[in-house]
């Protein structure tokens, strides 16, 4: 049987075949946005950033209700078929508040170190309000990840050199100096109640850094003295307490004497022992919350006394 002519049949060249193959490979490896059930996404382990019901969150919830999730979250796959959230914890919460069951995500295979660094960078870049404690643990996590990564790739530097290189790289990629980053990381050694006072603005950065060098028992004593004397330690006071500890001379009595010192700018304050009033409050109630409740109670009592006087005058 005679063969037909092939004049009108286009035969791809080798170059065209290679181009098509490369294009398909690129499409196969390209990251795609996929709707993932929220219940299959776990939070990042020890995520240092809080998800707060503040004004920013209310705006995000409203935005998701009106327009959906504009920027997809970033997750990495886990061996059991679930996913780990890298960037998008607040978007996930906003979706849940709107009753959504899925969230658009980009799935990316990442090492532990890569995941930490992306998680920290995206949160530091995108969040408008960041607490000192959040920055502290974020910087610590990223620096530790960079040190681990550097130890595997740089076999010529010792541990000290690797840490200095990592610290400099971390500073270069942030708005804080190397010294300031070190100060933030020191905050992670504070006991939780003192760290909360730093977040609330009751303890300044420099005194907080000095307090971080004290043993936990000494930190608890400082906290107790703060509550009794209704004051916060100055930088000078914390330096002296740290020095006393280094010399083996820091006792409960020394802390009490230092904390009871009158500061030049300190106005007279009413002092209430926490032991006297703690029974009126739930466990772990902060000093600020106690103060607010006491003021409210006094306002109610004042209105009651006013009504009593008005009855007597009739």
UniProtKB/TrEMBL annotation:
One of its GO terms (biological process) is chromosome segregation. GO terms for cellular component: chromosome. InterPro entries: Chromosome_partition/occlusion, ParB/RepB/Spo0J, ParB/Sulfiredoxin_sf, ParB_N. GO terms for molecular function: DNA binding. Residues 34-124 form the ParB-like N-terminal domain. Belongs to the ParB family. This is ParB/RepB/Spo0J family partition protein. The lineage of its organism: Bacteria, Bacillati, Bacillota, Erysipelotrichia, Erysipelotrichales.
């Amino acid at each position: 049987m005679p063969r037909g002519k092939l004049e009108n049949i286009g035969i791809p060249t080798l170059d065209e075949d290679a181009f098509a193959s490369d294009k398909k490979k690129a499409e196969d490896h390209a990251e795609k946005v996929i709707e993932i059930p929220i219940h299959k996404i776990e939070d990042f382990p020890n995520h240092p950033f809080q998800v707060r019901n503040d004004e920013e969150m209310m705006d995000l919830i409203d935005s998701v209700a009106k327009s959906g999730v504009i920027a997809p979250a970033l997750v990495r796959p886990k061996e059991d078929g679930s996913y780990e959230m890298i960037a998008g914890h607040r978007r996930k919460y906003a979706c849940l508040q709107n009753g959504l069951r899925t969230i658009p995500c980009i799935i990316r295979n990442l090492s532990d170190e890569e995941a930490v660094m992306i998680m920290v960078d995206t949160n530091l870049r995108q969040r408008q309000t960041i607490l000192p404690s959040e920055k502290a643990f974020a910087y610590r996590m990223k620096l530790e990840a960079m040190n681990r990564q550097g130890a595997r790739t740089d076999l010529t530097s010792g541990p000290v050199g690797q840490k200095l290189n990592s610290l400099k790289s971390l500073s270069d990629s942030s708005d804080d100096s190397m010294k300031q980053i070190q100060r933030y990381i020191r905050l992670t050694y504070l006991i939780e109640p003192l760290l909360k006072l730093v977040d609330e603005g009751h303890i300044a950065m420099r005194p907080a850094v000095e307090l971080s060098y004290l043993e936990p028992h000494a930190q608890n004593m400082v906290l107790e003295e703060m509550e009794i004397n209704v004051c916060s330690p100055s930088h000078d006071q914390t330096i002296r307490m740290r020095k006393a500890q280094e010399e083996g001379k820091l006792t409960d009595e020394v802390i009490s004497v230092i904390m009871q010192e009158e500061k030049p700018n300190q106005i007279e304050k009413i002092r209430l022992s926490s032991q006297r009033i703690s029974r009126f409050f739930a466990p772990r109630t902060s000093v600020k919350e106690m103060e607010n409740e006491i003021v409210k109670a006094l306002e109610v009592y004042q209105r009651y006394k006013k009504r009593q006087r008005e009855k007597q005058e009739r």
